[in-house]
Amino acid sequence: MEKEKLVQILWDYLRMNHKLEKSDCIVVLGSHDTRVAKRGAEIFLEGFAPLIVFSGGYGKLTKHIWNTTEAEKFARIAMDMGVPETSILIEDKSSNTGENILFVKDLINNKKIKVQKIIAVNKTYMERRTYAAFKKLWEDIDVIVTSPQMELTEYLAGYRSGEITEDEVINVMVGDLQRIKMYPEKGFQVHQDIPKEVWDAYLKLVEMGYTKHLC
């Protein structure tokens, strides 16, 4: 029971709950979680932006489970949901969050597309880290972050019979919290305060062995 409470504390901190606004572009960051692609397609079809960019090559997890890039797989999901191919751009070389942002920024600039506000779509527990990275690496745009709309129990349930296990996801969450603390010093993200309760939960999860994705 303690584990569930600790993971919930991390989840509540890492999720930012931004309100969606009309934007110039939706950027969907690649990962193993195809629900992220569906969320990006949903908000495009709801009319929040006229353009959607899928970003992602092969990541640490997906290089072992897929034979196509994250961006290509996500774009196919979006097109199957009704997103027109003419409204999609693909960036399929990046392998981490920083590259997602920088490579999409280059793609947008090279195509001379004017962008002032972006909706970034990622996994729920990646909202805060995504926001921090955008604010550091693409300073001149406004960014709203969003993710699949579900609570922790439902989110983790999706991994009980899939290619990635629930424990793997918790390991990644712990690693992401560590990066929120470490990465500002490396110039990868802006600084964000981490409440004591959140850091204490992180330390307890590390003690419990959730160390697989630590730097």
Q: If you had to describe this structure to a student in words, what would you say it looks like?
A:
- It is a single chain.
- The chain is an alpha/beta fold and 215 residues long.
- It has two domains: 2-12 and 152-207, no CATH class; 20-146, HUPs (Rossmann fold), CATH 3.40.50.620.
- It contains nine helices and five strands; from the N terminus they run H-E-H-E-H-H-E-H-E-H-E-H-H-H.
- The chain has helices at 2-14, 34-45, 62-65, 70-80, 97-110, 127-137, 152-157, 166-186, 196-207, and strands spanning 25-29, 52-55, 88-91, 117-121, 142-146.
- Strands 3-2-1-4-5 form a five-stranded parallel sheet, with helices on both faces.
- Helix 2 (34-45) crosses helix 4 and helix 5 packs across helix 6 (127-137).
- The longest helix has 21 residues, at 166-186.
- InterPro entries: Cell_Envelope_Assoc, DUF218, Rossmann-like_a/b/a_fold.
- Residues 24-143 form the DUF218 domain.
- This is DUF218 domain-containing protein.
- Pfam families: DUF218.
CATH top level class name of the largest domain: Alpha Beta
Major sheet strand order: 3-2-1-4-5
The H-and-E topology, N to C, reads as: HEHEHHEHEHEHHH
CATH architecture assignment of the largest domain:
3-Layer(aba) Sandwich
Helical/strand content category: alpha/beta
Radius of gyration: 17 Å
Main β-sheet: number of strands, strand sense, barrel status? 5 strands, parallel
Low-confidence stretches: none
